[in-house]
Amino acid sequence: MVSWIHVISAGTSVLRNFIRDRAERARELGISEWGSIGFDHPDQAKAQALATRSSQVFRDLYEYVSSRPQRASAELNAFLKAVSLFNHSPPSEVGIYLFSSDTGTGYLSASIVFEFLRSQGYRMLSDDPIRIKGLGRNLLSFEDSLIDLIEKVVIKILEWNSKGYKVYLNLTGGFKPESAYLLLAGALAGARRAYYIHELFEDVVFIPLPKLTIDQKLTKLIEKLPNPYQTFSELELEEILRDEGLDLIELRDRGLVYEGVPAFRKYVVRLVMELMKGGGLR
User: Fold this and answer.
1) pLDDT given at position 53
2) Nearest 5 degrees, angle CA 51-CA 52-CA 54?
3) pTM of the predicted protein model
């Protein structure tokens, strides 16, 4: 039986730390540059293909993480400290939901962390790491990645919260803008607390998640619009908002409406709709 669920955002700390600590072996394996390659680098496909237990790179990385998990992985460093402080044990009662960026190096690193946690007896809530479409690729895919984050992570948090599970967010790994969005969306969906390893003093810090809500005038408007994703004319959107007691300039300042385009941001609409469906805004 699962008593607690930890949602873990995985970055590439495993790769970067392996390259730092075992530089010669990294050169032998041909991965010494993988800690910093871009999303469009040809080696991203190679890294993706090696995210399997049968590859030598995977075996070397896994052995490295197994030998010193908290030095090898920032995500594990935060997680292992958190479960100890929270007294979340035994591992069989701790559910793990781990997701990665949409890059080969990100998925490879996440796969190592995933396999290590499974070997320690933690309850993995997916068959493999969850890959977030567009995450970590480019600015054009940023909005799509947030929508995929809602579909694959936030909806899960809503489901678990409705069933009484206590959900914790490990935001140590991954990209900061997306982590900030997940922090906000997770709080709205009912997550209990967030934590991460602070870069300055290298220890786990905890972020309380108070119960949050979205302005009911905005949620009711999005709910009743026939197509809240549509693009309006500037005047039309101003009038619609004014009728609901809302101000277009303020919503733009808050990032809820596009700059220069009279339309609600897609990931804002999707989040509101899922929160209402899941009871997070009732």
Assistant:
1) 94
2) 140
3) 0.93
